[in-house]
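All the exercises in this workshop are built on plain-text protein records. Instead of coordinates, the fold is spelled out as a row of discrete tokens. Once this layout is familiar, the rest of the handout is easier to follow. The record below serves as our worked example for the rest of this section.
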Amino acid sequence: MDLIDRGVFSRKAQTTETCRVDLAGLEAGTHQTDDIIFALDEAGRVAWAIDRVCDHASGKLVLDAGGATATCPLHGWQLDLASRRYTNAQTGKHALDFTVEDGVLAYERTHFVLEAPARQMEMSPAPMTVRFLAHACVVIDVAGLRVVTDPWLMGPCFVTGWWHAVTPPEDALDVLNSADLVYISHNHPDHMHRETLEKLRRDMPIIAPDFPSGSTVGPLREMGFETVHAAQFNHVYEVGETGGRVSVLQAGDFRDDSGLWVEGGGHSALLSVDSNKLNNFVLPEAPDILLTAFAGGASGYPVTFDTMSDDEKRRVTARNRVAVRDMAERYVREARPRAVMPYAGFFTEAAPEDAGTKALNAKNSSAEICEYLGRKMPEIVFADPLKTDIAVFDGDGIELSAFSGDRLFDVTPAYCQGYISRMVEEGQDHQGDALKSYFEAASFTDDLIVYVAPMTRDFSSYVAEGVVVDFTGDAPRADVLTAQEVADRFAAERGENGLRCLLIRVRKDSLWHVVANGLPWEDLSIGFQCRVDRTPDVYNSDFWFHFTNVHIGEAVVPRLEAAQGDVQAAVDMG
């Protein structure tokens, strides 16, 4: 099915508010208000001003003692205020426009919305149906167009770390293959799930964001899909002969992530997926329904980190839940929809070996979010998909109902163990020399040394061979050692020469699954398959981005297979 580019969303100022800060009596240095941080020079002039929203998970930056830095309490991201660059991530903040008159700092806070290009011809009114299938997978029927989003409909994802908390209905795979268009938001496996995609016909048209890294479009084409549309952000596409239109919007941070707008017949749906600050909160105006993440717990931080105690992890997890709730509220207030359906958070740590992780990793429930936001915005309909998973929009009416059939499967201990056993069997092929080849082919350099130590599935013992990878030269250099030697070397070298050192203790079988299949490394961290220690205790964002979005798929698997062949040939000759 063809996608016809009809132009780009335009930004329209809807409301503008002028905010003022009285500078009287303030000394030289940095200062903060509820919304901004700004600096006064020795002459009392405003040198710069920035908003306080952290660029990681939209927490609020707080000035540290001395005023040279500001830190977000959610994940510890620290901003150096002299450069306005983060000390623990390769990104920074943009300055605000402001004026100063009569000792008052003024800046504007404008609410913008996106306005779609005019249609080529008038469209007759038609109802829209939105049906929740599982996690981030929904089906949208509008104006003769059926779109299915982010299909994870069977098995685990994140290397057996995540399992369905709400299993799909029995007809989910049939619905998936009946789609006119499938949307894949990004390459995390709860959105681009390979086992599910194997059940999808190869000629299915797929739309995915055109990230510069190719992290989503590339793997989809490697899987053999014949029609993968690389969507330009904010472009509006007509879909074939249907009356439906779609547009892909970009996350507002440094990650490869996106959201989707679907429109037709006088109705529209906006899906923020799990994006941070989607399109910097400049969104299509007043969709009929907004679908947004709600749960939290979808990160390896803090539960997989050896740099904090369990009590500290519980405190950070509680703060993160509030931040995710606040993000959902921000989306609702910015989008101003008629209805809201929380989604993209229905997962659980069902594997018995992850019981400890599950106990630490508390999440918001969809009922809690609907109740909390419903009290604040009673004019909006909140549809909890655990109660009403079908919403029909017809004119001004909204009808909610629930699917009454059977489920596709049940997540039982035996169901989990079947997948884990296959991964353990695959992990028997683990080779230290192949790990070395994998990292040395990565084309990545940084002031970083990474220590990878394979472990048993309960993290009680070191097993097999790992690597120490030095990324500080012109090309990566890896040394193969026993896993215990890797850990000992990290303990001896951490903090030497001012270099950053990152220890990743990881389940051997999960590590091999990711390496051998060229999968993203965030599968290991988000899937709770590793334990992390680091000196200094900062986020090595470039490393995780490269090995999640760049060094994947065809960029790595052929080289790894060649390296394994060389090792086997040497063994045969010996």
Remarks:
- Residues 54 and 462 are 37 Å apart (CA to CA).
